[in-house]
Specification:
With about 650 residues, the protein is an alpha+beta fold. It has 17 helices and 16 strands. Helix 1 runs antiparallel to helix 12. The radius of gyration is 42 Å and the shape is elongated.
Length: about 650
C-alpha cells in the first residue's frame, strides 16, 4: 500500500469519527429537548389536575356545610340561640344549644370532622361542641379577613393556622398548638340576609393533604401547598429528611413549621447554612408563587431541602394559596442520563478502534517508507550493473508487487476486524432496547442503531473494494431463473419506495424474448442492481424509479437500466462518476451520503462479469444507469 492510500484511509476514518461524534451530539441534543418538553407538559398537567381536585374538594365541603344548615329545625334553633345573651353561662343554659349539638354530633360522625362553630355578627362563638369556646371571639378573627368575607355572603376555605383551641373528643392528643383549617359559610335568614356564620373545623393532614399527595409521581415527586408568606400548609413527602437535616424537631410535622426557603446547598448530602433559614430567601418557586406568578422550571433549582429539583407552580387567587409540583432533577432526567451514557460508551469504543487503526496505519506507513528507501538504494546500486542484474531487478519488482498485494489483503482483513467490534456496538444497542425502558428511550436507541447501520454499510463498501483491489473477489457463474432475481429485487425495494411515496416499477421490453435462465454470478449481479436502486432511492424525492430489462439476441446480452426522476448529475461530474471516493454535490439526501465507493464497486463488478456500465443524466430531470452483461445462454445449451 503506497503512502497516499495510507494517508487517505486515515483521513477517511478520521472524518467518519468526527461525523459520528457530531451526529451523536445532535441526537443527544434532540433527545434532551424532547425530554424537557415532555417533562414540562407532564408537570403542568399533573399540577392542573391537582388544582382542580382541590377546587372540587372545597366545593364539596361547602355543599356539606350548606346541607347541615338546611337540616330540619336548624334555622329555628339557631334563632333561639342568637336571641340568648352572648355570655358563656347564658349560652350553656340555652335549651337550643343541646339540640344544635345533637345535629352537630351527627354531622361530625358522618364526615369525621374535628368541630363546628356558629358565630354571630360580632364574631362571637354562640354554639360549638366545646364549652370553653362559647362566648369568646373566634380565633379566626385574627387571621385575615375570613369572617368579614363570610358575613359579606361568601363561602371561604380558611387556610391552615396555629390554634390553641382544643379539638373535639376526636383529637388524638393535646399539644401546645395544633394546625387547623376551616370551611366557612354564611347562614341566611328568611329574608336571605346573613344572620350568622358556620365554621367546620378540619384536619389539614386529612383530606386536604391526601388530595395533594395522590398525584405524586416517581420516587421523589412531591406536591404541596404554601400560603402567601411562603409557609408550607400541607404535608411534605420528606418529613423524615427534614427531621434528619434538622429542619423539623422531634415530634414536629411539616404543616406551618417549614418556611419554603433556599438553604443555599444540598442539606441532604451534608450542607449546613451559616445563618438561620428564616433569614434565607425563598426558593425560586416560592419567591414567584407568593408574588402570584405562575411558572414552570425544568432547568433545575434548589427546594427547601437544598436538593436540585424541577417543578411547576400556580397561585389560587380565590383561596389565596399556591400549589407546587416538584420532582428531583436526578429522577426527572434519569432516562436521558441512561441514553447519554450508552451513546458516550459507543463513541468511546469507536474512538478506541480508531486509535488502533491509526497505530496500524502509521506502522504500515513507516514500513512502506523503509521499503521504498530500500528499493531506491537497490536501484541506485544496481543501475551500473543493469544488464548483469536484470534478473535480480525483475525479482525485486515481483517482491514489491507481492508486498503491495499483501498490504491490500491487510486492508481487507482490517476492515473485517473493524466490522466485528462495530457489530458488538450494534448488539449492545439491541440489548439495551430489550430492557424495560419507556417508549421515548426505545426511539432514541433506534436512532443509535440506525447510525451504526450506516457506518456498517460504509465499512462493507470498503471491505468489498479492498477485496476487489486485492484480487480476492472471484466470480461464480451458475444458471438461475431470471424472474426469480427480479422478484427478489421487487420484494426488497417495493415497500421502501412506497413508504417514501415514490412509484417503483420493473418493466420488461419484449418479455417473450427474455431467456428463462441465464448463466452468470447471481449474487454479484444482485449487488450491482441493489447498489444502483439504492442510489435512486436516496436521490429521488418525487416521481418514480424504473428497472427496465431487455435482451439482445445478436450479442446474447441482457441490458438492465435503472431510471429515476431525481436531481440528476452535472455533466462535469459524469466523467468521474465511477471513480473511487467520488461524492456528488446533491441536496436530496445529505444525511445518508456514503463514502463514494458504491459506483466504483459496481464498475469493477461489472467488469468481472464481462459487461459494461454507463450513465446518462440531466440536471433536475433524473438519471439512467445502464448495465449490459453477457447472458451466456450458449453455455446453458452445453450444460443441457
Amino acid at each position: 500500500m503506497n503512502l497516499f492510500k495510507v494517508n487517505f484511509i486515515f483521513l477517511f476514518f478520521f472524518f467518519v469519527l468526527v461525523f459520528s461524534g457530531i451526529s451523536f451530539w445532535q441526537a443527544l441534543r434532540g433527545i434532551e429537548n424532547r425530554i424537557r418538553s415532555d417533562l414540562s407538559e407532564n408537570l403542568s398537567k399533573v399540577l392542573k389536575v391537582t388544582h382542580e381536585s382541590v377546587s372540587l374538594w372545597k366545593k364539596k365541603r361547602i355543599q356539606h356545610a350548606q346541607y347541615l344548615t338546611s337540616t330540619q329545625g336548624f334555622l329555628s334553633l339557631l334563632k333561639e340561640q342568637l336571641a340568648v345573651s352572648p355570655s358563656r353561662d347564658a349560652l350553656l343554659e340555652s335549651p337550643a344549644l343541646s339540640e344544635l349539638r345533637r345535629i352537630f354530633n351527627q354531622f361530625l360522625d358522618d364526615h369525621q370532622d374535628l368541630g363546628i362553630f356558629v358565630l354571630n355578627r360580632d364574631f362571637v362563638n354562640i354554639a360549638s361542641m366545646q364549652d370553653e369556646t362559647l362566648g369568646q371571639l373566634n380565633s379566626i378573627e385574627s387571621h385575615g379577613h375570613y369572617l368579614q368575607e363570610i358575613f359579606n355572603g361568601n363561602s371561604v376555605l380558611v387556610l391552615p393556622m396555629k390554634s390553641t383551641i382544643p379539638l373535639s373528643d376526636r383529637s388524638v392528643k393535646s399539644r401546645d398548638w395544633i394546625p387547623t383549617m376551616f370551611i366557612g359559610i354564611p347562614i341566611l335568614g328568611e329574608r336571605r340576609d346573613v344572620i350568622a356564620a358556620l365554621l367546620v373545623q378540619l384536619d389539614p393532614y386529612d383530606e386536604f393533604s391526601r388530595i395533594l399527595q395522590l398525584p405524586r409521581t416517581g420516587q421523589t415527586g412531591d406536591i404541596y401547598a404554601l400560603d402567601g408568606n411562603g409557609i408550607m400548609i400541607s404535608e411534605s413527602r420528606f418529613e423524615s429528611h427534614l427531621k434528619a437535616i434538622g429542619r423539623l424537631k422531634s415530634g414536629q410535622r411539616s404543616i406551618l413549621n417549614i418556611r419554603v426557603s433556599d438553604p443555599g446547598g444540598n442539606m441532604v448530602t451534608g450542607f449546613r447554612p451559616s445563618q438561620s433559614l428564616d433569614r434565607k430567601p425563598l426558593t425560586l418557586m416560592a419567591g414567584q408563587a407568593v408574588r402570584k406568578i405562575d411558572g414552570i422550571q425544568v432547568d433545575g433549582y434548589r427546594d427547601y431541602r437544598g436538593v436540585p429539583v424541577v417543578g411547576a407552580w400556580l397561585w389560587d387567587h380565590q383561596s389565596r394559596f399556591a400549589i407546587a409540583n416538584e420532582i428531583d432533577f436526578s429522577e426527572a432526567y434519569q432516562s436521558f442520563f441512561t441514553i447519554r451514557n450508552v451513546v458516550l460508551s459507543a463513541f468511546g469504543i469507536m474512538l478506541f478502534l480508531f486509535l488502533i487503526l491509526a497505530y496500524l496505519l502509521f506502522r504500515d506507513r513507516r514500513n512502506a517508507i523503509k521499503q521504498n528507501e530500500l528499493l531506491e538504494r537497490m536501484v541506485e546500486e544496481r543501475t551500473a550493473e543493469l544488464i548483469r542484474s536484470n534478473t535480480e531487478l525483475i525479482e525485486a519488482k515481483k517482491m514489491a508487487d507481492s508486498a503491495n498485494q499483501l498490504k491490500s489483503r491487510f486492508l481487507s482483513n482490517m476492515s473485517h476486524d473493524i466490522r466485528t467490534p462495530l457489530n458488538g456496538i450494534l448488539g449492545f444497542s439491541s440489548l439495551m432496547q430489550k430492557r424495560e425502558l419507556d417508549d421515548k428511550s426505545h426511539r432514541y436507541l433506534d436512532s443509535i442503531s440506525k447510525l451504526g447501520q450506516n457506518l456498517l454499510v460504509l465499512i462493507d463498501d470498503i471491505l468489498d473494494f479492498s477485496r476487489i483491489e486485492a484480487g480476492l473477489l472471484s466470480v461464480k457463474q451458475e444458471s438461475f431463473v431470471l424472474n426469480d432475481l427480479l422478484d427478489k429485487l421487487d420484494a426488497v425495494f417495493s415497500i421502501q419506495f412506497r413508504e417514501k411515496g415514490i412509484r417503483f416499477k420493473i418493466e420488461k421490453i419484449n418479455p417473450e424474448s427474455l431467456p428463462e435462465y441465464i448463466f452468470q454470478d447471481e449474487q454479484r449481479l444482485i449487488q450491482i442492481l441493489m447498489n444502483l436502486l439504492t442510489n435512486a432511492y436516496k436521490y429521488t424525492t418525487d416521481g418514480e424509479v424504473k428497472l427496465i430489462l431487455s435482451y439482445h439476441q445478436e450479442t446474447d446480452s441482457l441490458l438492465f437500466a435503472v431510471k429515476d426522476t431525481g436531481d440528476g448529475i452535472k455533466e462535469t461530474d459524469l466523467e468521474a462518476i465511477f471513480d473511487t471516493f467520488v461524492q456528488l454535490d446533491t441536496e436530496s439526501d445529505l444525511e445518508n451520503r456514503g463514502a463514494g465507493l458504491g459506483l466504483a464497486i459496481c464498475k469493477k463488478l461489472t467488469d468481472l462479469l464481462g459487461g459494461e456500465i454507463s450513465v446518462e443524466s440531466k440536471i433536475n430531470r433524473g438519471s439512467e444507469f445502464r448495465v449490459r452483461i453477457p447472458a451466456n445462454s450458449g453455455k446453458l445449451n452445453v450444460l443441457e
